[in-house]
Amino acid sequence: MKKILLAGYYGFGNLGDEAILEMALKQILEITDRKNIIVLSGNKEITSEKYNIATIDRYNVLSIIFKLRSTDAIVFGGGSLLQDITSKRSIYYYLFLIRLAKMMNNKVIMLSQGIGPLVNENSKNAVKNTLKLVDYITVRDKHSMELLEEMGLDKNKIFLSIDPVINLRAGENFVNKTSGRKKVCFSLRNWKNADVSCKISNVAEKLIENNIECYFIPFYYNEDLELIDQVEKNLGGRAVYYKERLTTNDAFDIIKGMDVLVGVRLHSLIFAASANVPFVAVSYDHKVDHFVNSVNMKVSSNIDDIDEELLFNEIIDKINNEDFEKKKLYDNVSRLRELIKVNYQILKEI
């Protein structure tokens, strides 16, 4: 049985990354046993308890070196690890892990990666030079593939896949609601100087006036709760606010009961797609655009220029055309789910 070190942005309470971890484990367990997997985590105790898996502190370099002496491969399970927009330092952490793993004679497999944006020339050169060492890379969108090809990486090592979270709870039967008030869920995030809380509050207020229930859910608890508090100050008790730390299953269960999800967070949109809940996307990053395009849709607006009237009208349109929207989303998600098969094929090469 192969021994695997699994790396990513795990243990920080971001539901998107935790869902990636769940799906990465599911894929890796196809080729090895749970006892042969070690996860790098920002909170090793919580990750170990939650997933019944061995963990080590992602910042303990000596422990990582020790583990790499006995593993066969390091696997990066997905996400936007190689970008320099939200962090200038994390990209070098992951590049360091790649080089360290190769020094220790491990294979390096990167699954369902979103590459970029890379705005710093030094970052771009570092990614280009380091990724040449990687054995296989699957990417979650065509843009990432094109970026790697522009860097001159071997096309035989690059494959188009999809974010693994698209398979979250795949196969479940989701029963459509037949009565009651319509429900809209919002998954927001702050971004630079964008006035998100005010504009979204205005949209929600108009929905409430039209007898539509509004819910607000945190996907990255440490960042999103402040924004939800701001919305609550505007709307008071006329909406529902989830302020506890949710699990991926909690969030999925909430979203699957909605008629529409309005999402800024990428993985809130992917949760909705997996649950076959029509969504309206507000983009803060190209990765949102890429996913929305992959299901043959367009983003409603960019986060720094939210058109309140357009956003409201798109939500109402989704509600009024529910059957059509669900059928279209289901067909596109079914097509995307076929792409994840390449991840399993590559893992079998370890």
TrEMBL record:
<protein>
    <submittedName>
        <fullName>Polysaccharide pyruvyl transferase CsaB</fullName>
    </submittedName>
</protein>
<keyword id="KW-0808">Transferase</keyword>
<feature type="domain" description="Polysaccharide pyruvyl transferase">
    <location>
        <begin position="14"/>
        <end position="286"/>
    </location>
</feature>
<dbReference type="Pfam" id="PF04230">
    <property type="entry name" value="PS_pyruv_trans"/>
</dbReference>
<dbReference type="InterPro" id="IPR019896">
    <property type="entry name" value="Polysacch_pyruvyl_Trfase_CsaB"/>
</dbReference>
<dbReference type="InterPro" id="IPR007345">
    <property type="entry name" value="Polysacch_pyruvyl_Trfase"/>
</dbReference>
<dbReference type="GO" id="GO:0016740">
    <property type="term" value="F:transferase activity"/>
</dbReference>
